[in-house]
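Appendix C reproduces, verbatim, an entry submitted by the partner laboratory led by Prof. M.T., so that reviewers can inspect both the input and the predicted structure.
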Amino acid sequence: MRGHWVYAPVLFFLALSAASGQGASLQPSPEPSDAPSVELIILGNVQDGGAPHMGCSKSCCAPLYTQPNTTLKVVALGLIDASEEKTYLFEATPDIAAQTAFLRAAAPFQTGSAPDGIFITHAHIGHYTGLMFLGRETLNADQVPVYSLPKFASFIASNGPWDQLLALKNIRMNPLVEDRAVRLSAHLQVKAFRVPHRDEYSETAGFEIAGPEKKVLFIPDIDKWERWDTSLLSAIEQADLAFIDASFYDSAEIGYRDIAEIPHPFVVESLALLEALPRELRSRVYFIHMNHTNPMLNPDSEASRAVTAAGYGIARMGDRFKL
């Protein structure tokens, strides 16, 4: 990690207060609109292992063991559909307890303890293992809808302890058809599409979220962009917001690992690929899913300043977007 930094844990609670109407930093903007109110909120931006990362004694993690940073959560998005008084979660991470609490506090209506639906991209630990907290040892939830592509649904149904969530009716699986949208309301729909990634236990999905006015692309995990059968430039041009894989900033960052085992696009590679984008389109792109070693997790780092100076965004806990 370039630089030494620690956020004050109180930031998380300040954000919660603001989201629940006791402050201004996370309040929805009061713009008048005839469109139904749908809002996306960032609930995490860190790669699966979180921060601090188990076994890491580097400067990026060492301070966090004794001074936890409550703004560093594993990658997840929340949706707030105020018109329908429903909330949705994208990814069930090990940080699901704090993330669902944040989502409830951010909603302008009273919600249940569980969201009204959870969308899962794939069977890697940071993206689905939070489902265990819906079981009887914790929430003992009542048939929370879980949306995924079919192979992931089969993985849950065929393996313990996940199949117990189905047996006890804590969740119910809703397999999605690739490239076919599921309509959550008259003004909100979600479509899953396949992306290339390490598919040991399930396929890997990206999601297109279409609100009343804006369309969002969510690809937290992918192998190199050239392995995808869709042009990233074209996908961004057709979206209003794009949250894309930023696991590693560059190759120097992961000298301690075999890149063949973790073939994510480096941020510097994505920047080169997107260089042709006009600046007004670059503002649609937000980098997310950053490894604990990625200097972009620090807003004051040289890497963060370079990315934002080029016109791109970096997803941060509590960021909110009207859809």
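Residues 1-32 have pLDDT under 50 and may be disordered. Additional entries are available on request from the coordinating office.
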